[in-house]
Amino acid sequence: MPRIEMGRTNKLGYAAVIGLEGYARKSVDPVLYELIKLRASVLNGCGYCVDMHATAGRKRGIPVRKLFAVAAWEHSPTLFDDRERAVLALTDAVTRLGPDTVTDEIWAAAAAHFDDGELGALVLAIATINVWNRIAISTEMAPPVDAKHPVE
């Protein structure tokens, strides 16, 4: 059980994050969206969100091998195309913010596949999952395990 339920204790703030999530979900290709969400969640160690986005990725038809390989995408060149690799690199850089993270090379690789509006939507999607990861980790949310969500 989480420490607090943000949707109950902080309704307006939680609703604002849900609004940003809705924008990101509509603005980013559905497969790329799940890859972004899964990769950032792996980097942040958010078990709740890793479970959620791996499950959602399977429902979207992303091959299980590809979902597993998100954890080591840089060493899985045959499983991701150039566009997906550019998005995963951008996800890593935005999630691991620091002085040398979102380099010109990473940005240029993404810009080769996406226009300015699409790049902005990608950055917002990456930022949003980082917010969700921090909420889930700090409130100790755990993946559900019940008849509706069995452990296979």
Textual characterization of the structure:
The protein is mostly helical and 152 residues long. It has eight helices and no strands. Helix 3 (30-44) packs parallel to helix 6, helix 3 (30-44) crosses helix 8 (116-138) and helix 6 runs antiparallel to helix 7 (104-111). The longest helix is centred in the C-terminal third of the chain and has 23 residues, at 116-138. The radius of gyration is 16 Å and the shape is globular. The mean pLDDT is 93.
Quickly describe the structure.
By secondary structure, this protein is mainly alpha-helical. The protein contains 8 helices and no strands.
Calculate Rg over CA atoms.
16 Å
Mean of all residue-level pLDDT scores: 93
How much helix is in the residues? 55-70%
Shape call = globular
Q: Please give the largest β-sheet.
A: none
SSE string, helices as H and strands as E: HHHHHHHH
The count of helical stretches stands at 8
The structure class reads mainly alpha
Termini distance? Answer: 22 Å
The tally of strands reads 0
Beta-strand content: under 5%
Query: Which stretches of 5+ consecutive residues score pLDDT under 50?
Result: none
